[in-house]
Amino acid sequence: MSTLAIDGGTPVRTDPWPTRVQIDDQEIDAVTNLMNDAKSGGAFDRYGGEHVDDYEVEFAEAIGTAWATGTSAGTAAIHSALAALQLEPGTEVISAPITDQGAIMPVVAQGLIPVFADASPECMNMSPDGVRAKITERTGAIVCAHIAGIPCEMDEIMSIAAEHDLFVIEDCAQAHGATWDGEFVGSIAHIGAYSLMSGKHTVAGGQGGMVVTDDEELYWNAKRFADRGKPFNSEVETNLFLGLNYRMTELDAVIGRVQLGKMVDIADRRRAFVSKLEEEIADLEAFSVCWYPERSRPSWWFLLIRIHEEKLTCDKARAVDTLGAEGIPMTPNYGAIAPRAHWLRKQSAFGRESHFPWDVVWPDGDWEWALDVPNAWAADDNHMRLGIHECCGEQEAVDTAEALRKIEEACLA
Ligand SMILES: Cc1ncc(COP(=O)(O)O)c(C=O)c1O
Hints:
By secondary structure, the protein is of the alpha/beta class. The chain is 36% helix and 13% strand.
């Protein structure tokens, strides 16, 4: 048995972990061309330009939906998708237990109430049972998030939604290139939202978002909402309903169009890393790649490693430090348990004192049930997080496996 690096042994890896490089000359050329056009009067907002329009058509084609509309961020895409549903204020929206606040804040901003579905302890996504347990007569929609690039159990979620006549929004911010039963995420539910911020699988101009749908009415509503309720495709001549300015710019779109062409390759390279790691650690007892549904093909925005602490003589914190000493930049967890956020615990959205809109819908103040997601906390405890990306290759997978094996050999209970 080799001595762990943390105890003075030789580390598995001394090379730095690869840096993710997202941009190459193609994006630089696209931006340069746009700006050169602008010098002779060309547009770089979407009005008068052609790149946002083209990006939307190409994005819809790539994902397999009839329609797509660009926005200024993933948060804006979620907000526009929610607004497109035209739910009555106070409607409860079943939300993901582990996700970015950019998927929750639009719910409240739209006068709706987030109610969190629990996960299973083996997964950071909402579970079908978790969804079922939170449905009430006030529920109007489900926003499911494919966290870490792992698709939610979409068949079950869609059949629960059909049973209760609910809309489903897929939050695909972390899951570009992931599929469910061979179809890209975002094309399964009624409407989908992508974040195109830098660091995501593909990026627009550093920030950006896209709403995708097969439903023409939802498409027009999302597009109208993202541009101050403008009456696109309507006989009304003035602004139709409340909306915001969430428009994508031409500058975002020229970068996004190049990036879209790289989406599948980026997802495939991440999958190759994870397949190699799975193969290398198949016999370990204390560590495995996290669970994902059989019908899913994750695209791994980051990698979750399941740790069975009960099989080790060391705890997770020590395992993470030990992996770090071996040259593997593991972190203890993802940590984005949505209902732990201060503003949700304090119901702090509008004004200083008000608990609007919660107090209107639940005047008796009984709202703890909506925040209760014990399995999500367990899932966060049971997993470690590794920042993998398409610049990580076979060597990084082999090194990660070797470091995990070293810990298991030294610390198996
Ligand atoms: C799951 C999820 N939803 C929504 C968002 C919000 O996207 P954006 O930061 O582009 O507004 C993020 C961003 O990280 C996310 O991870």
